[in-house]
Amino acid sequence: MSERWHRRHVTALLLTHSACTQVVTFVLRPTMSYRAIELDVPAALLGVLGASFALAPLLLALPAGHAADRYGERRMAVAGALMLTASSVAFMVFGHTIPGLIAGGALLGTGHLGCVIAQQAWVANTSRRGGHDSAFGRYTFAASIGQAAGPVLIAAFGGEQAIPDTGRIFLWSCVVSVALVVLSLFLSASPRAAGEDQDESMNVRSLLRLPGLTHALVTSCVVLAALDITLVYLPALGTEQGLTAGTIGLLLTIRGVASMGSRFFLGSLSRILGRRRLLVASTIAAAAAMLVTPLPMPTWLLAGLLLVLGFGLGVGQPLTMSWLAESTPPGLRGRAMSLRLVGNRTGQLLLPGAAGLVAAGMGAAGVLLITALGLGWAGVAARRLPVDG
Fold this sequence. Notes:
The protein is mainly alpha-helical. It is built from 14 helices and no strands.
């Protein structure tokens, strides 16, 4: 009984840590866009700001995964939370300049990387075989709570205005980041296989030889990039169409709540439909919703589309994480999760930048349309994934 209580306690702590990480990330990223709009940054440069979130972590992901395997998840979580705090401070102090926004975005991406690698490695190492779908569903459900709660700060600080009070949002993000540091100190280490002295390049090569890994990485990165582009360009679309910051914050919250729903029921949905069918259907549904989002329509209909979009985008990440965790031996799971994040960060680095080039001529609506086409392609390609069985 005591062991079961301890297990529930540490799981609740991990899920709270996940939610707080996403609160900070999902309030700072759109707020960074609003601050850029305050500075009259061209639409093409919004993609560069989005890419700053991915650039530094792209270089650090594999070493961070190795560190999580070798030194434990708690140390990695503490380091990530400290970087998130530094990011909030950077936005407050240097966010009145474009280089300051880029630096803050890089710190934000690095801190987010450290936290999520620690969290994902912990879930992968502590879940029983056959239970990864439910475990990663709960984990990403907690993340979705944070993703939904984060934009609420936008509505709280000037939601009736076109641009909220970005300075106050940066300040409160710093407070949440400090609380996250404290939470990190109480995380327990997961039981991991004894570390064996293996050649690092062989470890990475062995992961790359997993059947279907390339398709899984591509699907994961396109789904995440679509989510990122929504965060960056929905505020821009709102300003183009005359929507208030409060309305945009509400729409982002609806998207996050919808992702919560798909992830909460992920284990049951996977058992009923099968991983492959669920992944394909959810991705194509999200693509269809994003395709029509830029069209002029009533706000209630736009909210319905964000509901479908959020539900569809909520499935891809936990399913690919679950498959990867089950396909990877203990002792390599931190590196496996970091390899997936490398693919995600590559997409976050390249796709928003490409979207920025499109935005230079077509605006935010054009970016969302192009992204929807890429998302639909990823859904069709997901049919080849060996994720069932």
